[in-house]
Structures are given as structure tokens and as C-alpha cells.
Specification:
The protein has helices at residues 14-52, 61-71, 73-113, 129-141, 156-177, 183-196. By secondary structure, it is mainly alpha-helical.
């Protein structure tokens, strides 16, 4: 592939990257909250409960929490310091997935509006490379061409026009006959006319 185009924007899709990153922040907060309070409970079992039973220095709950926080402040500083690094790495990883999806979406919008499109070329470190190959095969097959580029006889445009005119003729025939004959005869004659058209 050897496509080493530099990324101009790392955040390209709020729907994809925003949801993944917000969930990562929630997980980070939950994990650190759980670890911090698990350590607090372990320390409270070791030192707080004996203090309450008179077997050591007696501290109130807030005093014990403040003492615990002072002793384990380095854990909190380390967690906060590592957070931006992991968030930046996750942002780059989500871009490797969101970037290709945004390109696929833009190409599909061009196809829908009848604009000419080129093959998709992803970067070397992008994910979804197997979808790139399948998508490019689809583009080369020309089965998606239904707009201005296919106007000759026998193409999808002319076939769609023929079907539409047949349906219109069928509708007119049903309306003009009314109750002159049975529904079975109406259906048979109008279908044969539509297929001959």
C-alpha cells in the first residue's frame, strides 16, 4: 500500500471517536475510584478498625481518609499524569478506525449524488484495510452506476424507465377498464401488455 500521507486532523468523527473516548474516560474514572477506595478499605481494616477498638491511635473517618490520601498521593499523581498519554494514544487509535469510515461515507455520498469517485486508498497504519479492498472491487464492478453515466440502451437507467412506463400503463389500463370485466381478466391482459412493453 505504501500510503504515508500525514494526518491533518486526529479527531475526525464525533460520533465514533467521541463515543469511544468518552467511554474510556468513564472507565478510567471508575477504575481509579475503585482501586483508590479498595486500598482505603484495606488500610482501614489494618489500622482504622484496631484504632476504633482501642488497640491503636484512634482517628475519625475524615482524619483517616486525609491520612490515607497523604500517604498514597503518589498513586493519584501517577494516575492523573498517565491519563493524557493514554487518552492521546486512544485518540490516534480511534482515528485509524474512524478515518477510513469517514472516507467510505464520503465516497458513498458522492455515489448517491451521481458524482464520479476514485478508488479509496487508506494509510499504512489504518484499520479496516480488508474493507478497502472489497469497496474498491465494488467500485470497479460498475454495478452501482445508475445516474448520468449510464444512459445508453440496455443500461439500468433505460430498464428502470421501461419498468416505470409499464407500471404507468398497467395503472391506466386498470383505471380505464373499471368494472367491464372480471378482475382475473383485467390482471391477465394488463400483465401481458406490461411484459410486452
Amino acid at each position: 500500500m505504501n500510503n504515508t500521507i500525514e494526518r491533518k486532523k486526529v479527531f475526525v468523527s464525533r460520533e465514533i471517536q467521541g463515543r469511544i473516548l468518552s467511554r474510556m474516560v468513564k472507565y478510567w474514572l471508575f477504575y481509579n475510584f475503585a482501586v483508590w477506595h479498595a486500598l482505603l478499605l484495606i488500610d482501614f481494616q489494618r489500622y482504622g478498625i484496631p484504632g476504633l477498638l482501642g488497640q491503636g491511635p484512634r482517628l475519625g473517618l475524615l482524619e483517616f481518609y486525609a491520612e490515607f490520601a497523604a500517604q498514597h498521593l503518589m498513586l493519584l499523581v501517577l494516575a492523573v499524569a498517565l491519563f493524557p498519554i493514554s487518552l492521546w494514544d486512544m485518540l490516534k487509535l480511534t482515528h485509524q478506525m474512524a478515518g477510513p469510515l469517514v472516507r467510505f461515507r464520503k465516497t458513498l455520498k458522492k455515489i448517491a449524488s451521481g458524482e464520479p469517485v476514485e478508488k479509496i486508498q487508506l494509510r499504512d497504519d489504518d484499520l479496516l484495510v480488508e474493507f478497502q479492498e472489497a469497496f474498491n472491487e465494488f467500485l470497479q464492478s460498475d454495478r452501482w452506476l445508475v445516474g448520468p453515466r449510464s444512459s445508453g440502451p440496455g443500461t439500468a437507467d433505460s430498464q428502470a424507465g421501461a419498468v416505470l412506463s409499464s407500471v404507468t400503463a398497467l395503472n391506466a389500463e386498470v383505471n380505464s377498464r373499471g368494472n367491464q370485466s372480471s378482475p382475473e381478466e383485467n390482471t391477465t391482459s394488463t400483465i401481458s401488455k406490461a411484459t410486452s412493453a
